[in-house]
């Protein structure tokens, strides 16, 4: 603790009066002197002394300690926070050096079990947080690996963010500026993906899941079919008629996907019409409010994209069940308008504005929908149940019986896995890798989002959703392939 400036050993064995933990007057042999900073708060001093006197089974040192105080000729500049410490049993057969070593060890290993900060010093935190390896013992390994990738992705974005800020502020409006940063993005994507493979391998090795490789992908839990032998693997598993599945895909699913594609293009055209209208209004009367109006179409379009992605998710789940697919699939629409602006319209100013608005709006919506809205709904359900419990048994929430606590947690939402969490990071990776050459501040926005994402996801998994069953994981699975494919598409785009 920073308030403890020095801990020195005493060379003499003079007996001095002291007060033990039970406040009974006794004598002990002081062997160490503890000097605290002169500006240490009394709350912190009282807390530290209580921890030194507490029994060892409670995390204390179980030592005797007493304040030395000022001498007879002491001045105001002298530090009054001097304390003598020693063992309870003065007739030890150990030598003085051994006793001092044991006392120092006990002081160094004091434990604070309930406090989150040093009393009187809120800035002195006692629990800085859990590492990724420690999180793997409480969370599922899939979740721990997700947090590992989120942490790695955030730190990997820092160099791009540091370069992007001066690059954005430097007034250089020509295509050479975009080409230079695009080449940097290409190298950056390649390097961080290769380094992530090594980092994920080290995590899997430390967790003992490195050699866990699925020889064959298991069918999804909701897949139904007649038991039979797979002609490829020779294993007994549910099978479905391939002919029926193909008919469902070509006659229903494919037309539905084309309809969704048409709807996406139609919404995008409406967005461009709204953008043109807002620009014309601003050109006729350039005021502050017409300047704000320029961002309204992008905000509306970002909200519509999130709604459409939610509809796509439910549609993908329904089609997966209806077609009888053995694996999951999903589709989304986030980059269509940006590609159209970049390659068809070639309007870099509109591209920067649209990218910034899409990033900020989608991040705010995702944080609200993923954590805060479910938590608010859960709190409402808990309050209703707590009123019933208190009326029936007149107990406080802190003294909630185990049965009622189980019922409260049973009402929590079910965590459906890390698919949506990885999808969000995948989209952010796409925004940064594909379009940050035009808008270098994109990396800064994503770094800020990831910092809040760590806390919101941890809050969501610990307080909003039920704890899922642990499942071993050796890597991030198919998302590694998708990230590599995104990097390959980026190379083709720059060419």
UniProtKB/TrEMBL annotation:
Keywords: Membrane, Transmembrane, Transmembrane helix. The chain crosses the membrane at residues 144-169, 175-196, 249-274, 294-315, 327-343, 355-377, 425-448. Its main location: membrane. GO terms for molecular function: chloride channel activity. It holds the Pfam family Anoctamin. It is found in: Membrane. One of its GO terms (cellular component) is plasma membrane. It is a multi-pass membrane protein. Belongs to the anoctamin family. This is Anoctamin. It comes from Dissostichus mawsoni (Antarctic cod).
């Amino acid at each position: 603790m920073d308030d403890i400036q020095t801990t020195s050993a005493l060379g003499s064995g003079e007996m001095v009066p002291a007060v033990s933990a039970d406040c009974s007057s006794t004598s002990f042999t002081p062997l160490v002197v503890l000097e605290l900073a002169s500006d240490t708060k009394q709350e912190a001093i009282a807390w530290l002394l209580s921890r030194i006197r507490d029994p060892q089974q409670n995390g204390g040192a179980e030592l005797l300690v007493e304040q030395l105080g000022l001498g007879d000729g002491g001045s105001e500049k002298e530090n009054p926070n001097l304390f003598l410490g020693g063992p309870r049993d003065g007739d030890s057969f150990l030598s003085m050096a051994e006793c001092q070593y044991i006392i120092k060890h006990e002081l160094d290993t004091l434990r604070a079990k309930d406090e989150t900060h040093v009393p009187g010093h809120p800035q002195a935190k006692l629990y800085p947080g859990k590492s990724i390896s420690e999180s793997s013992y409480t969370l599922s390994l899939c979740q721990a690996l997700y947090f590992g990738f989120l942490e790695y992705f955030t730190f990997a974005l820092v160099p791009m963010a540091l370069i992007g800020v001066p690059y954005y502020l430097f007034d250089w409006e020509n295509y050479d500026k975009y080409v230079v940063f695009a080449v940097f993005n290409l190298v950056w994507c390649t390097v961080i993906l290769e380094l992530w493979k090594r980092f994920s391998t080290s995590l899997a090795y430390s967790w003992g899941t490195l050699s866990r490789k699925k020889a064959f992908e298991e069918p999804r839990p909701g897949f139904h079919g007649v038991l039979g032998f797979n002609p490829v693997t020779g294993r007994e598993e549910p099978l479905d008629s391939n002919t029926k599945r193909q008919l469902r895909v070509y006659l229903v699913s494919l037309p539905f996907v084309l309809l969704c594609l048409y709807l996406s293009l139609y919404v995008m055209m409406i967005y461009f019409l709204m953008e043109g209208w807002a620009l014309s209004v601003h050109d006729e009367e350039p005021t502050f409010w017409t300047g704000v109006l320029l961002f309204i179409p992008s905000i509306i379009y970002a909200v519509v994209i999130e709604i459409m992605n939610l509809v796509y998710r439910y549609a993908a789940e329904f089609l997966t069940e209806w077609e009888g697919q053995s694996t999951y699939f999903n589709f989304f629409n986030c980059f269509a308008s940006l590609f159209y602006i970049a390659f068809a319209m070639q309007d870099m100013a509109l591209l920067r504005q649209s990218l910034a608005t899409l990033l900020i709006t989608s991040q705010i919506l995702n944080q609200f929908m993923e954590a805060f809205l479910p938590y608010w709904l859960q709190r409402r359900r808990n309050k209703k149940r707590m009123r019933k419990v208190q009326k029936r048994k007149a107990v406080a929430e802190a003294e909630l019986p185990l049965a009622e606590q189980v019922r409260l947690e049973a009402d929590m939402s079910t965590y459906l896995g890390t698919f949506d969490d990885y999808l969000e990071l995948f989209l952010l990776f796409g925004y940064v890798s594909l379009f940050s050459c035009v808008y270098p501040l994109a990396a800064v926005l994503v770094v800020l989002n990831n910092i809040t994402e760590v806390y919101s996801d941890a809050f969501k998994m610990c307080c909003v959703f039920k704890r899922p069953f642990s499942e071993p994981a050796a890597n991030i699975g198919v998302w590694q392939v998708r990230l590599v494919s995104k990097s390959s598409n980026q190379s083709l785009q720059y060419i």
